[in-house]
């Protein structure tokens, strides 16, 4: 009976859910989760902290390997499939339609919550702060603080690890690396990434309280665990 209910629920959700993350309905916006009140402001451009963070970026720039650069470039993509290396061979888009649509909404939520804070604080990216910085990843000129990639990586990691607690350590290590790769790629400062981790954790906690989230989460979790043979 439970399996029939979940199957019907999955079908209904797929009928309502858009395919592409850019069309997905977010679970929250900046009006419901205001990062301007939840995060401290970024370090000032002329502060000792920003100078130290710039030194870190420049140090990594001369020590990063081609393999590190390749990983940072791959992590420019913002979707849950970047966790495939820890989830196993059955973790595929075509096999998990309800799960995929659910995480499209997770990704859309990050943009809706984080982008207004970026626009308000307008912290320069490392390459905007210093011409010595040569990013190894695609350039972005949006505000640096907080890091959107780190936010969504953390958010996805928290939700995914709740679905598959057996892999929690590996999933959260992957989420951590997702943020570190923004520094390795030379596109973010340390404080941007640290703020992104806080933002992602807060967003996860807030949206998990919503009945709408809980319904879609249950269907996505059931589909994922079945697909992984758990």
What features would you describe in this structure?
- InterPro entries: Acid_Pase_classA_bac, PAP2/HPO, PAP2/HPO_sf.
- Residues 101-208 form the Phosphatidic acid phosphatase type 2/haloperoxidase domain.
- It comes from Bosea vaviloviae.
- Residues 1-21 form the signal peptide.
- By secondary structure, the chain is mostly helical.
- It has a single domain, classed as Up-down Bundle (Vanadium-containing Chloroperoxidase, domain 1).
- Helices cover 63% and strands 0% of the residues.
- The chain is built from eleven helices and no strands.
- α4 (66-74) packs across α9 (168-184).
- The radius of gyration is 18 Å and the shape is globular.
CATH architecture assignment name: Up-down Bundle
- Ends apart, CA distance between termini: 19 Å
User: What is the string of SSEs from the N terminus onward?
Assistant: HHHHHHHHHHH
Radius of gyration: 18 Å
**Low-pLDDT stretches:** 1-22
Taking the sheet with the most strands, its summary is: none
The helix-and-strand class reads: mainly alpha
Q: Give the total of beta strands.
A: 0
CATH evolutionary superfamily: Phosphatidic acid phosphatase type 2/haloperoxidase
**Tally of contiguous helical segments:** 11
The proportion of strand residues reads under 5%
GO molecular function, one term: acid phosphatase activity
Protein name: Phosphatase
Pfam families: PAP2
InterPro entries: Acid_Pase_classA_bac (IPR001011), PAP2/HPO (IPR000326), PAP2/HPO_sf (IPR036938)
